[in-house]
Specification:
With 379 residues, this protein is mainly α. The chain has 3 domains: 138 residues, Tetratricopeptide repeat domain (Serine Threonine Protein Phosphatase 5, Tetratricopeptide repeat), CATH 1.25.40.10; 130 residues, Serine Threonine Protein Phosphatase 5, Tetratricopeptide repeat; 53 residues, no CATH class. The chain is 64% helix and 2% strand. The chain has 17 helices and 3 strands. A 3-stranded antiparallel sheet has the order 2-1-3, with no helix packed on it. Strand 1 and strand 2 form a beta hairpin. Helix 5 packs antiparallel against helix 6 and helix 11 runs parallel beside helix 13. It binds zinc ion.
Length: 379
């Protein structure tokens, strides 16, 4: 059992004097803040009268933390930690919350120190390991983040952070270590989309076409069908695989890229492509200046899903060049086509977050590999 369960009580009942629902959004937020502050004051009084009320004490600290008052929150934990005769499990809990306070305040070293002390008492509790993994990831200590996710038995996350180690190794010019780290990541989690993507983008960058073909075929088999589009999207925008990683934009080399795109189209064709992969096949064909074949692939996309808006947009673009349009009509049309091109193409299947760049962990709800391609506009 998690050591936190010892502290979990049944759910609190809803407060009676909640803000009336007819208040506007802003008023609701302000009332919410006032409610929280009032609750903090009430709790402070209660704790003063009954200093043994550990549960209330910790809850009070959490309230301060939620208000961004880190110093006060930390004071509460520390006053608890030094109490004589405190049960070890309570001390561990106070240290754990202290670690979370520091983490929230951005004092990562102090957070790690508190959490390690909690771990010394409570052992490898999932809550403590999760906090430590998160802090290490934030501090770009990816090897340590991978280590904690391994302890947690989370291969998706472990492989992700190993891939990020590999990316750093590539930047440092240590390709041997990078490739061996990526191999390890794929051994741990064979579907690791980001690891495959990193291998592929490196082979492409180093102009190793034959090896690229082999690995691209393997990746299309290993990566789950609904995530295969991430490989192509990532290869088309290789400078931003992990979003927050600053990398130099590759010098574009048209002719060199075209041979890679042709290989990709061929491999996609024999990989039982779904709607999104047909669309990406068409995009690659367009980049190879094969507009005719691209139209065929786009038509196939629409046969599979007639609401696939992006395929319609591309077909419309291709058809537009063959029409005689008045300047005014063309002007209006360009306006709408421009807007349509700015629509965010990816969405998180867990929370609906939308973005125009690939992501492996949702920036909003922290779900892993929850990215989907927005095939329909109402998605
Ligand atoms: Zn999400």
């Amino acid at each position: 059992m998690s050591f936190l369960n010892l502290f979990r009580k049944k759910k609190a009942t809803a407060p009676v004097n909640r803000a009336p629902s007819y208040l506007s959004g802003t008023a609701k937020t302000e009332t919410g803040l006032a409610d929280t502050r009032a609750a903090i004051d009430e709790l402070s009084k209660a704790v003063k009268d009954t200093p043994e009320a550990v549960e209330i004490y910790l809850a009070l600290g959490n309230l301060y933390r939620s208000q961004g008052e880190i110093e006060r929150a930390a004071q509460i934990r520390n006053s608890l930690i030094v109490r004589p005769g405190l049960a070890p499990v309570t001390k561990a809990r106070a240290l754990y919350e202290l670690g979370r306070d520091f983490s929230r305040g951005g004092f990562l070293d102090r957070a790690v120190s508190a959490l390690k002390k909690a771990r010394d008492i409570a052992g490898d509790s999932p809550e403590i390991l999760t906090e430590l993994a998160g802090i290490k990831a934030r501090g770009r200590e990816f090897e340590k983040a991978a280590y904690y996710h391994a302890k947690l038995g989370q291969p998706v996350q472990e492989a992700h952070y190993l891939a990020r180690c590999a990316e750093d190794d590539f930047s440092d010019g240590d390709d041997v270590t990078a490739y061996s780290t990526l191999k390890k990541a794929i051994d741990i989690y064979p579907s690791s989309t980001e690891s495959w993507l990193l291998v592929l983008s490196r082979l492409k960058k180093d102009n190793k076409l034959d090896e690229f073909r082999k690995k691209f075929r393997e990746a299309l088999q290993k990566v789950p069908n609904h995530l295969r589009f991430v490989l192509v999207e990532g290869l088309l925008a290789e400078s931003t695989i992990f979003g927050d990683t600053p990398t130099s934009v590759a010098v574009s080399d048209g002719d060199k890229n075209i041979s890679f795109y042709e290989v990709m189209v061929k491999e996609i064709e024999v990989s039982d492509p779904d709607v999104s992969m047909h669309y990406y096949g068409a995009r690659l064909l367009q980049l190879c200046n094969n507009q005719e074949e691209a139209s065929v692939w786009l038509e196939k996309t629409l046969i599979l899903n007639q609401n696939f808006w992006l395929a319609r947009l591309e077909l419309f673009n291709l058809a537009q060049d063959q029409q005689q349009l008045t300047p005014s009509f063309k002007n209006q049309l360009d306006f709408f086509v421009n807007i349509a091109h700015k629509i965010k193409r990816f969405t998180c299947s867990s929370c609906g977050f939308k973005r125009d760049r690939i992501f492996f962990v949702c920036p909003r709800c922290r779900s892993w590999h929850s990215i989907t391609f927005r095939k329909e506009l109402n998605q």
